[in-house]
Backbone:
């Protein structure tokens, strides 16, 4: 047992039960439960390898940066921290709430999944409003340069190149980086978020896509992830050159709303073309939800016939 | 020639005459003249080693030892053992329970029945560990892996039977009993199984310093693995579920019965309540009880019998929503996410015990 965990046990006047819930490679996660409490009292992450120590140090830094808004955003607070080159322990408060597997209904009345999806999107809105945009700035030249090695064989490259060349300036927004439902907890309709080692400036779309591609969708009487959504997820998040381009170079989004919409929907439309021909209606539903939540909405700039 | 760690000299055995025998020289001889054992260069040999038994046949074990000396133990294990067994021997996960053991750095830990040293070697990265193993070849292997991994300063190997190595009282901060309690009945057939197990725990309690802990990893007699028909320690499915006399009858007559000693059914496990009873008889009480979801051999996911922890674990491990069958299964698992259900049917228990008066 790490000594920070032992100290946390010793500090508590009440009995605490420990749970170890596995963890990523090189990191052990221990939760401390007060017998009478609804949620864990704290979470300890102990890193045993140098790579894991670096990851944990990033999370520690992120949580310190977010500390002023921790209450408002439902972000863990740092309770204790100790680090050397091969061993580190980060002790934080736990995020109140339970894990909910979001099932996004595509037909019929909105179900409980939609409720939680909306809560997660509301959280993202709050996050973007609350946290000052970090980094970003002019990135046009870098984005165009990044296109050079890509072949013209897929329509997306030409479209995105023209998009980038026409844009004046791009800016990134703060992003969680791994915003899937497993990193969210819901206390009623209020969402809290943990696992902050990926906090960085990126496209604001990154977190939305991560969330949506991790959801399950109910359609045709079955609950599963439609192939297009899965393919889109793999394009956006995989380690191919094209994915890198999507992730890193489209991320700079203009401050101008119209340009932002253009960028988003060109990107979305082209990537759907790459992803596959079927179930485009699902993406239409997704973008409808985004529109209701105040994220860029579809409009006349969409390529003709893309949803049909 | 390997040397024992300096701190081993501070430990003592208890002679039958009642005097202590310090492990400070190479020969462990009591003032009464009795020779308890000796340091043989890589390990302490106390009493007589038990006959060979283990996951692999004896000749294969000897080849593994030879190759470990030549090529390094990790390479030898990977080359000679089946992948599942290789993982079992090499993975640090086997000692993942240390995250719940409130031990300070440098604590003195006794790993009872250390096997191939998977737990002892990993614990030795943080604590001083005495790995006690009855089979000579396995004890040699532990000493070899400790030397090759640079852990010899923190890991001392004692080759001696779990029921006969008698430490002087009050020396250890913790004792690790992972997959051992159920077997001790086979190594002493002079008494009833429960009596052997209680005596074993009572002896271990005596080895501990005040406030010391015993970690026990063991199967639930009526756990869901047993109900599903996973072979019991007898080598035969369902024997743990039977009344003991019936299990004995089955073992006597079944050709799959796997104990080489052929001493009938002596590998008792218990229900949660049954364990608490034998702990109490040994003067111990459970400080915490967990279900080890991956089995006590891989204690990376230890869930305490606390409703919120069980619900959290269950939610995180539900199957991804799919057809009707998956949904029904998920609902059933959520409905079963109750402490009473896990306490009754959880497959493997992990207990942290302390002296009843502590």
Residues:
């Amino acid at each position: 047992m790490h000594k920070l965990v032992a100290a946390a046990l010793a500090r508590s006047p009440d009995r605490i039960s420990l749970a170890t819930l596995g963890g990523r490679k090189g990191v052990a996660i221990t939760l401390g439960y007060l017998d009478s409490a609804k949620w864990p009292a704290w979470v300890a992450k102990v890193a045993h390898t140098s790579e894991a120590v670096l990851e944990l140090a990033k999370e520690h830094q992120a949580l310190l940066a977010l500390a002023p808004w921790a209450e408002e955003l439902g972000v863990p607070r740092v309770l204790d921290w100790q680090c050397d080159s091969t061993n580190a322990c980060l002790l934080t408060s736990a995020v109140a709430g339970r894990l909910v597997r979001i099932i996004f209904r595509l037909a019929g009345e909105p179900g409980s999944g939609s409720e939680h999806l909306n809560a997660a999107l509301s959280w993202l809105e709050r996050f973007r409003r609350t946290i000052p945009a970090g980094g970003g700035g002019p990135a046009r030249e870098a984005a165009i340069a990044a296109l050079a090695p890509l072949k013209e064989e897929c329509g997306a490259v030409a479209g995105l190149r023209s998009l980038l060349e026409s844009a004046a300036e791009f800016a990134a927004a703060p992003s969680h980086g791994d915003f899937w439902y497993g990193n969210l907890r819901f206390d009623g309709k209020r969402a809290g978020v943990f696992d902050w080692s990926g906090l960085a400036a990126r496209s604001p779309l990154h977190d939305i896509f991560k969330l949506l591609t991790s959801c399950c969708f109910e359609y045709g009487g079955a609950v599963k992830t439609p192939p297009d959504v899965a393919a889109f997820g793999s394009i956006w998040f995989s380690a191919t050159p094209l994915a890198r381009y999507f992730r890193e170079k489209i991320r700079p989004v203009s401050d101008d709303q119209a340009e932002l919409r253009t960028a988003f929907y060109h990107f979305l439309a082209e990537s759907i073309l790459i992803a596959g021909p079927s179930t485009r209606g699902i993406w239409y539903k997704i973008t409808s939800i985004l529109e209701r939540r105040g994220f860029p909405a579809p409009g006349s700039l969409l390529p003709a016939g893309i949803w049909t | 020639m390997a040397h024992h760690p300096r701190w081993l000299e501070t430990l003592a055995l208890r002679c039958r005459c009642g005097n202590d025998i310090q492990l400070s020289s190479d020969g462990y001889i009591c003032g009464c003249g009795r020779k308890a054992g000796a340091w043989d260069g890589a390990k302490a040999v106390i009493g007589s080693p038990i006959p060979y038994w283990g996951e692999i046949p004896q000749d294969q074990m000897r080849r593994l030892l030879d190759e470990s000396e030549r090529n390094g133990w990790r390479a030898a294990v990977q080359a000679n053992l089946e992948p599942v067994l290789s993982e079992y021997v090499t993975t640090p996960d086997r000692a993942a329970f240390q995250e719940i053991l409130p031990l300070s750095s440098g604590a003195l830990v006794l790993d009872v029945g250390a096997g191939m040293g998977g737990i002892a070697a990993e614990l030795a990265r943080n604590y001083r560990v005495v790995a006690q193993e009855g089979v000579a070849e396995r004890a040699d292997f532990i000493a070899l892996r400790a030397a090759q991994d640079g852990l010899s300063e923190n890991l001392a190997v004692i080759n001696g039977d779990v029921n006969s190595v008698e430490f002087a009282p009050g020396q250890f901060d913790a004792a690790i009993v992972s997959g051992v309690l159920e077997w001790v009945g086979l190594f002493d057939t002079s008494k009833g199984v429960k009596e052997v197990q209680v005596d074993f725990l009572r002896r271990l309690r005596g080895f501990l310093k005040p406030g010391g802990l015993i970690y026990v990893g063991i199967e639930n007699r009526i756990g869901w693995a047993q109900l599903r028909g996973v072979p019991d320690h007898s080598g035969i499915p369902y024997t743990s579920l039977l009344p003991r006399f019936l299990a004995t009858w089955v073992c006597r007559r079944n050709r799959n019965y796997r104990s080489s000693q052929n001493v009938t059914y002596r590998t008792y496990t218990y229900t949660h309540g049954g364990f608490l009873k034998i702990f109490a008889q040994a003067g111990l009480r459970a400080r915490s009880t967990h279900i080890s979801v991956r089995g006590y051999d891989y204690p990376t996911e230890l869930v305490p019998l606390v409703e919120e922890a069980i619900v959290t674990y269950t939610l995180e491990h539900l199957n991804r929503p799919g057809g009707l069958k998956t949904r029904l299964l998920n609902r059933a698992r959520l409905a079963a996410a109750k402490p009473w259900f896990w306490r009754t049917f959880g497959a493997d228990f992990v207990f942290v015990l302390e002296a009843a008066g502590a």
Q: What stands out?
A: The longest helix of chain A spans residues 112-130. Chain A has a mean pLDDT of 69.
